[in-house]
Amino acid sequence: MDTLVRVTDLSRRFGRQLVLSDVNLCLQKGEVLGLLGPNGAGKTTCLRLLSGLLAPTTGRIEIEGMDLARDPIRAKAALGYLPERPPVHPELRVDEYLTYCARLRRTPKREIDEAVFAAKDRCGLSNSGGRLIAKLSKGYRQRLGIAQAILHKPRVLILDEPTEGLDPFQMRELRGLIRELAENCGIILSSHLLPEVQAVCDRVVILHEGRVQLDADLADNQPGNVWRVKLGGQANAERLADLPPVAGAVAIGAEGFQIDLFEEAGSADLARAIVEDGLDLLELVPERSDLERVFFDLIGVEETT
Ligand SMILES: Nc1ncnc2c1ncn2[C@@H]1O[C@H](COP(=O)(O)OP(=O)(O)OP(=O)(O)O)[C@@H](O)[C@H]1O
Fold first, then answer.
1. What keywords would UniProt list here (predicted)?
2. Ligand 1 centre and the CA of 67: distance in Å?
């Protein structure tokens, strides 16, 4: 596997406040990694460290094997970065701004037009070259922010809250773009929204108070055909386990049960079997994955058991 980013024992202090502590993570080629955490968890600080804007207090960041602290120019050449607020200049037109960014990236003069054309094409801005940035919608500004980040075809793309403030339609479009871009590089993005990360990422790292709480593959984090029910009447786990669609049942709390269904069965089969058995069905919800449980526990949403 192609490891694009390797972070080892990273920490950062601001004065006496330890904002990030012992962060370890890896990014592989083709992967979209979500850095998920509530406000103030340290996501932006982590991404600023990864992009080389901020120096770590301790720890090491390698970009394609290059040490970001020792070989910053070469390592940063492999990085594209979209900060929380896209660094666009409202008084410029899209083409002017991207040309300016390409110059900052030291793109050879004869390659600038082609780089600007390709970045606009990837980000759905092909018809917007002459538009004044001040007049672009939030979604288009975000696209422009991504376009400046990919102008030099970086192998690693760092996106800080890329869909923040977008409407649902713009969000869906941007997620599609992120997935497309990941075909040629690796992407780390931050978000405080679990569904956002579930929709676009392959892997998630949950940060809380500057520490990694979970590093998990999202494909491995599907709870499967497992359901939570709340029942009235004389319910017990043995009785539930005897129902035709049920492979196993465990009691959780006073009236709650976690129920594992056979592969071919669905929630409707379970509901029918419970009611036909004479039990009162008070609640039936899909079981949360480990990821959902860790995340909701951290942000303080209580589990109903
Ligand atoms: N330059 C700075 N100087 C001092 N403290 C800072 C600085 N930057 C961040 N912090 C502090 O570090 C902590 C983490 O902030 P950070 O912006 O990294 O979190 P975040 O997870 O990105 O939050 P949000 O989702 O609200 O953007 C906060 O307590 C913040 O006040």
1. ATP-binding, Nucleotide-binding, Transport
2. 24
